[in-house]
Structure formats: C-alpha cells, structure tokens
Amino acid sequence: MDLEGRRESTNVEDRRGRRAAGVSLGIGGTIIVGIIALLMGRNPAEVMQNINAGGASTETNYTPTAEEEELASFTKKILASTEDVWSAQFKKIGQQYVPPKLVMFTDQVQSACGNATAAVGPFYCSADQTVYIDLSFFSSMRQTLGADGDFAYAYVIAHEVGHHVQNLRGTLSQAHQKMAQVSQTESNQISVRIELQADYYAGVWAHHENQMFGSLEDGDLEEAINTASVIGDDYLQKKARGYATPESFNHGTSQQRMRWLKKGFTTGDINGGTTFQGNYSDL
After folding, report:
1. Lowest-confidence range among 16-25, 84-93, 204-213?
2. How far is residue 109 from each of residues 81, 106, 119, 139, 256, measured CA to CA in Å?
C-alpha cells in the first residue's frame, strides 16, 4: 500500500506508556480474551483475573521501538484516509461526517465504555466516539494468525472506523437496544450483523481510498481478505480448542467476513451493507 507523502490525522491521542489498573469487558469480550490468550500460549484464567478490577491509570517507563513508531505513523495516515473518504461519502447522502478520535495505548486503557485490555484487540467505543488500539496487536496478527501486510493492518483500522459510521447513521444504537431485549443467542446474531456491516464499510473505504489516491498495490486486497478469514469466529474457535460452537459466534464466520468485505470493496456503495436485512442464515 503506497502512502508516500500522505498526511497524518491529528485526531489521535497517544497514551502509550500509561496503564489502566483494571479491565471491564463488553459483550463477547470474555470469549475473545479466552481465545486470544490460548492462541498466544497464555493462561486465560490469569488474563481474566484483572476483569472489573477498576482503578486509575499510572505512568510507566516506555520507549517505543522504531518499528512501532512506523506503525503509529501508518495508523495516523490510515485514519486520515478514512476521514477523507467518509467525509466525501457522507456529503453525497446529504450528511456531515464527524470523524472519530483514535487512542493508541499499551496493555490496558480506560475508555468511556469502561476499562479494556489489549487482549481484546482494537475496539470502538460509541460513548466517546473513539477507536482504541494497542499497536502490538499487529505483531500478534502476524505471529499468531499469520495475517500480515500493511493493507491487512489498514483493514483492521477501517473496520473499527466502520463501527463509527454505524454509530453516526444510528445503526449501532438501535442494534444495541435490541440486543438488550433478546436471548443471548439472538444477541450474538445481532452482534454478527453489526460486525459484518463494519467489514462491509471497511471494503467501501478501501474502494474509495483506491479511487481517490490509487494507493492499492498487487496483493493488498488479498492481505485484507486473508485477515478477514483468520479472524472469523469459526476459525479462531477451532484453532483454540479444536471445535466451534456457532451459537456463540459474535463476529461472523471466515466466509461471511470475507464475503462482506469483498462486497463493500466491489460496490463502494455506502447503502449496500444490508446485513440487518433477510434471514440470519443467508448472511
């Protein structure tokens, strides 16, 4: 992915080196922590001991590596790209795009949605309209899942910004309200619809990013599709414990995630992410 000479977003807060003293996980977070802990060779029980501990953040002695500084610059450029793309797309439908903030952190972080650990991966908090990311997640993608490449990393960021797009369009709040009124299985299915739509929006972003800047290079799209494949619920669960339980899926299968990402990239249509329409089995 060619980002030479591209601007960096200023909607970024760097909290690297500050630690939150506890972790409170949202829907599905506990499952994700357990899976990722197993994949990284850690004891899930030890990871889970910190849940709901709460407390204030503290400063630590932290010096980022040169590689991490490159990733920080890359992340800011991708965020800037989402600002440019979504501002243009919202203008086409007569709306104003208000970009999210992005917080870079290490290990743990405090958000308006509660405290979170890096083990849950990048996440979006609608309460403060902010994307949170520990840059070490990209190393984990490469080492644990074999998902690598700049466009693979860009897809991860674009997916979280996709949740912000959902928030601005009112989809996210409606879905969360519905999730609180139904069974756990039905709630998980709504969560899958949310995540697949965010994948679709990531594809829409990539479509227009390439149209606006001609940044995509050979193999870039394949990197993102491979990443979508290895972060599917079925893939992660089978890799962690040898089998999958579909009723617990809350992000979508590998095939679903790849399909909606590719659909967004192919169409570039902001209104084409129809994951909340039709039967769940048809996703």
Report:
1. 16-25
2. 25, 7, 11, 19, 30
Instruction: Check: CB of residue 247 under 8 Å from CB of residue 188.
Output: yes
Q: Tokens for 31, please give them.
A: 């499952």
| Cα distances (Å, whole numbers) of residue 129 to 69, 161, 165, 245 | 24, 10, 10, 32
Sheet holding 130-133, edge to edge: 12-14, 101-104, 130-133, 123-125
Distances (CA, A) of 82 to 2, 16, 19, 164: 15, 22, 28, 11
**Residue type for 219, please?**
G
- Mean pLDDT value of segment 25-36: 42
**102 phi and psi angles, rounded to 5 deg:** -125, 130
Phi, psi (rounded to 5 degrees) for 117: -105, 155
Quote the distance between the C-alpha of residue 151 and its chain's center: 14
Which DSSP string corresponds to 26-59? -TTHHHHHHHHHHHTT--HHHHHTTBT-----EE
pLDDT at 54 over 80: no
Q: What is the pLDDT of residues 114-163, one digit of tens each?
A: 999 888 889 999 999 999 999 999 988 888 888 889 999 999 999 999 99
